[in-house]
Design brief:
It comes from Candidatus Desulfatibia profunda. InterPro entries: COV1-like. Keywords: Membrane, Transmembrane, Transmembrane helix. It is built from seven helices and five strands; from the N terminus they run H-H-H-H-H-E-E-E-E-E-H-H. Helix content is 55%, strand content 14%. A hairpin with a 3-residue loop joins strand 2 and strand 3. It has two domains: 109 residues, no CATH class; 81 residues, SH3 type barrels (Roll). With 207 residues, the chain is of the alpha+beta class.
């Protein structure tokens, strides 16, 4: 009976582990599509009103036009004139728009055009003792200082900000995703972090 219960439990958990990510991804894609189509609804209505095509095709046409517009703008801003226009707009107009700078930083990081702030992964001695804390370098400063965000588990969106000497910051060869998973799981799987740290500190300085 115990083996049967274990089989039922493992099968149920396995099914949830497969279906839930797919369902959440589908929900996210549906939400994103509905948001985009809601934004472009005036254009879709205009296209739909002047032709006999279905609403879905009208949405697809408008989205294609928007993507082409993004491509065209991307080509233009690679030219000297485009760079000048972009820099002028940002300097004299867009910088006064509420939230523009934050949105731009987020988009640039998402597209990989700017270094992701939660990298590299580091272990820090925030109190200059033997205590090691998992953190992420978010900024570097002159004079050998850097700013490190140390998240709290299991909620990685909260944590502490430390401004430390680089002598107390130890980069480890572990991806940000792996480090974040150890924080979410309250330390489970931290062996890779500590192994990478041990290998680094034991490596001869002349290597």
């Amino acid at each position: 009976m115990s083996r049967f219960n274990t089989f039922i439990q493992n099968s149920l958990i396995g099914g949830v582990a497969v279906i839930l990510p797919v369902a959440l991804s589908a929900f996210l894609l549906k939400w994103l599509f509905m948001m985009v189509t809601g934004i472009i609804r005036p254009l879709t209505t205009l296209v739909f009103a002047k032709s006999n095509i279905q609403v879905v095709f009208a949405d697809a046409i408008v989205i294609a036009i928007i993507l082409f517009g993004c491509f065209f703008v991307g080509v233009v801003v690679r030219t000297r004139l485009g760079i000048f226009i972009q820099e002028s707009l940002e300097a004299y107009i867009l910088k006064f728009a509420p939230g523009y700078s934050i949105i731009k930083e987020t988009v640039m990081q998402f597209l990989g055009k700017k270094k992701f702030p939660f990298s590299p992964v580091v272990l820090v001695r925030a109190f200059e003792n033997d205590t090691l804390m998992t953190g992420f370098v978010t900024d570097e400063h002159p004079g050998g200082l850097c700013t490190v965000f140390v998240p709290t588990g299991p909620n990685v969106t909260t944590g502490f900000v430390f401004h430390l000497s680089q002598d107390n910051v130890y980069p480890v060869n572990v991806s940000a995703d792996q480090a974040i998973r150890t924080v979410i799981s309250c330390g489970v799987g931290s062996g890779k972090l500590l192994k990478a740290y041990s290998e680094d500190v034991s490596r001869p300085q002349n290597e």
